[in-house]
Amino acid sequence: MTVRDFQNIKFAIEDRVARITFARPPLNIFNIAMMREIGDALDDCANQNDLVAIVFEAAEGSRAFSAGVAVEEHVPETVVEMLDSFHDIFRKLNQISRPAIALVDGAALGGGCELVAACDVVIASDRAKFGQPEIKLGVFPPVAAILLPRIIGEKKAREMILTGEVIDAAEALRYGLANHVVPANEMPTRLANVLTKLRVLSPSSLAMTHRAITIGSDRDFDKSLKNVEDLYLNQLMKTEDANEGLRSFMEKRKPEWKSK
To answer: Least crowded by CB within 10 Å, which of 93, 222, 239, 253?
Structure first.
């Protein structure tokens, strides 16, 4: 068993399965430090040739899988570093090319929902909720803009991203964002069942099959993400409304949009 100490996450590799546990309860907001730690844990995963799965979950006592990326780090001084540390997680998952599993009990919002979208298997409790509320702050979710239409369909993805709608676990299952929905106390058993199936398989064959699915989906994720990042940083974040939306959230008031 491999265990590595971090401040914001717990990380362990046991029996060829890596577990990354978000440990910033109650909401597990992703700040830059936490996202860098997740990236470091994924670097460790990349060095494990016999790895069959990476599991993301929230620490006991959390009210959310993750309520998203820290809004206060969207300010001009840190937005580039924030986006880089967050998107680095998805690039590394893409490069590692192993089955990624999310255990979602509670809310997966914003960046939390984007991470769920990037996972191959999502086991949700019947009280889980999913959403991309970024538009309410005058911004958009770059990773969701790429992945959600491919997972849940173009129309529903557009509705969720453009309105900030939050859906429940049953809807997530119906649209394909979740693979399994069970009572919270049955989630460990359902995870164990999935891991049992993966552990008898060849790690190298899993990796190649994962890549084949990505190729078959015609997804040039890195190129798409680079283009969306450019739009986010060099156009969106230079508008008055984007900065007003983020500022109003931090100041706990309604935004005053100026359409520019």
So the answer is: 253
